[in-house]
Fold this sequence. Notes:
It holds the Pfam family Acyl-CoA_dh_1. The protein is α+β, with helices and mostly antiparallel strands. The protein has helices spanning 7-34, 39-47, 66-79, 81-101, 104-115, 233-269, 281-314, 319-344, 355-364, 372-384, and strands spanning 121-124, 140-143, 149-160, 167-173, 183-189, 195-200, 211-222, 226-227, 271-272, 275-276. The chain has 3 domains: 7-120, Butyryl-Coa Dehydrogenase, subunit A, domain 1; 122-233, Butyryl-CoA Dehydrogenase, subunit A, domain 2, CATH 2.40.110.10; 234-384, Butyryl-CoA Dehydrogenase, subunit A, domain 3, CATH 1.20.140.10. The strands form 3 sheets. A 4-stranded mixed β-sheet has the order 1-4-5-8. The chain has a 4-stranded antiparallel β-sheet with strand order 2-3-7-6, with helices on one face. It has a two-stranded antiparallel ribbon with strand order 9-10. The longest helix is centred in the middle third of the chain and has 37 residues, at 233-269. The two termini are 34 Å apart.
Amino acid sequence: MDFSFTEEQLMIQDVARRIAQEKIAPTAEHFDRSGEFPSENIRLMGENGLMGIEVPAEYGGAGLDAVGYVLAMIEIAAADCAHSTIMSVNNTLYCNGLLKHGSEEQKHRYVTPIASGQAIGAYALTEPQSGSDASAMRCRAVLSADGTHYVVNGKKSWITSGPVAKYIMLFAMTDPSKGAKGISAFIVDTEREGFFRGKTEPKLGIRASATCEIEFVDYKIPVEDRIGPEGEGFKIAMSVLDAGRIGIAAQAVGLARAAYEASVAYAKERKSFGQPIGTFQMIQAKIADMKCRLDAATLLTLRAAWAKDQSAKTGARFSTEASVAKLFASETAMFVTHQAVQIHGGMGYSKEMPLERYFRDAKITEIYEGTSEIQRLVIARNETGLR
Length: 387
C-alpha cells in the first residue's frame, strides 16, 4: 500500500496547521468559556479553502479530495473541536450533499457562498422526537395547489450552526403514508418569512459551535429548491451521513492526537518520587495504549477517505468503512482523553489546562452523525446482509 500524500494534500494540511496553531489554538479557551461563535476564525478558514475542500473551484472550493479534507480536519480539531465541527458540517453535510444531489443552478447559487466562506451552511434532519430513527420525522412539506412551492411546518432540533446559518439543507415529510420513502430534501434560505431560530443550546462541549432548534411556520420553499426528486430525501440524508462520519472520525483523531501529545510532554516533565512520571510502568502502559489506538484510528479514517475518493470513480458504497472509522475513532477519542486527564492528575481536572476541554469535547463524537450504537448496527447489517 502507498501511504504517501500528494503535494496538494500536504499543502492543505499545512494551511490548516498554520491557521490552527496561529489563530485557533490561542483563542480556543476564550470561545469555549464564552460560547461565542468564532466568526473571524471561520471567515479566515473559508478564505483559505477550508470550508469547501472537496468543492470544485468553479463553485468556490479548493477542489481537493477526501484524503486532503481528513488531513486538514485533523489539524483544526487538534487545536479546537468546536471549530472543526463547524468545518465538518460545511464540508461533508452541506456542500457534499448539494454537490452530489443538487442541480447545477443549486450548486452555483447555494454552494459557492458557503464553500468560499462568505456564509455558513447547516443540515437539518433531527427532530425533538426523532434522533436515530430519522424516518419518524413530523416536519411536513406540502406542495401548493399550483405546484410552484412547498409550505413547510414543523421543528428541527440540534442544528449545528443553526443560529448563524444562511442556508440549511432540510429534510421534511412530503408523503407520510410512505414512511422513509415519503421524505424529500430542500434548501432553506433562513432570511425568508416563516423561519424561526430557538435558543442556542447550552452544551457540555464544542461550546463555540452554535447549536439550536429551528421552527417553520407556513414557510414557503420554491419547488426549484427541492433537492432531487420527491421521496428521495431519506436516501440523500443517509448518503450524506456516510461522508459526515468520515469528518467526525477525522475530528476525533485530531482531538485524540492533541490529548496524546500533551500527555507525552507532561509525562516527561512532571516529576514524582524524584523522577519523571513517564518512567513509571503504569504511565508507560497508558502511553502505549493511547498510541496504538490513535494510530489505528488514523489509518481507519484515511482508509475511509480513500474509499470515498474511489467511490467517486466507481460508484461503490463506502458506508462500512465510514462507520468503522467513525466508531473506532470516536471511542478512541474518549479513551485517550480519559487517560490524558488521569495522567495529568489534578491539573487534568483544572480549567487552567485544555485537557478537561478535550475530555468534554470528545463525548459528542460518539453521538452525532450516528451514535456508536447506530454505527455497530450499520457495520453488522452490512457484513451479514441481515436487517
